[in-house]
Amino acid sequence: MKCFGKVNDRDRLFYYKYLFATPRPVLGVGNIASTAKQLHEEMYTQLAKGDLAPVEKVLCDGIAKSLQSRVSSRPRNQIMEWTCHSHVKRPRIVSLRQSPLPVFMGKSEKGKRVAIVQAVVRLHTVQSLMRRSKDGKKGWIQDKPKERIEYLVLQRMMRNSIQGPWKVWGTTEETRPETLLQLA
């Protein structure tokens, strides 16, 4: 028996696209995976360099603070270089959700709404990290390229029917059945 009160993700996206606001927002689902790939590479390249200023505009507050604390906790005389060698599989959208938010300070006018869209993108890459000291005495120490599966969470805000850019909200891990059984 189907519950009539239950709304699934596809229904929410339909509502967001066609009924939520005017003019109709463009979802741009085809560009989300490539945007995630680009933001992932920019974020980790700058994290390895220890300079997050170039990517501050594409990071949400939580992950920006987390990455900044990782940079500040690393040894001062160490230089790093991150490399993404290849993508084993194409980036894939795992989840795409939207949620209307209460109107931020101001009057609620018809068509002037606030919403948030979040996408979780699976990135299967081969990557490595090279390290050396600033004085250059030890030379480069290169880690072996490792195959990694990461889940990057992107977020986009819509205010007054205008969508903002995609930003990196954070990362997450895949939920496994064993984990769910432990929680029960």
TrEMBL record:
Q: Which InterPro entries match?
A: Mba1, mtLSU_mL45
Q: Name one GO biological process term.
A: protein insertion into mitochondrial inner membrane from matrix
Q: Where are the transmembrane segments?
A: none
Keyword Acyltransferase assigned to the entry: answer is: no
Where is the protein situated, by its record's location annotation? Mitochondrion
Chief place of localization = mitochondrion
This protein's GO CC annotations: mitochondrial inner membrane
Task: Read off the Pfam families from this record.
Answer: MBA1
Coiled-coil intervals = none
What's in the keyword line of the UniProt record?
Mitochondrion, Transit peptide
Protein name per the record: Tim44-like domain-containing protein
Q: What is the lineage of its organism?
A: Eukaryota, Fungi, Dikarya, Ascomycota, Pezizomycotina
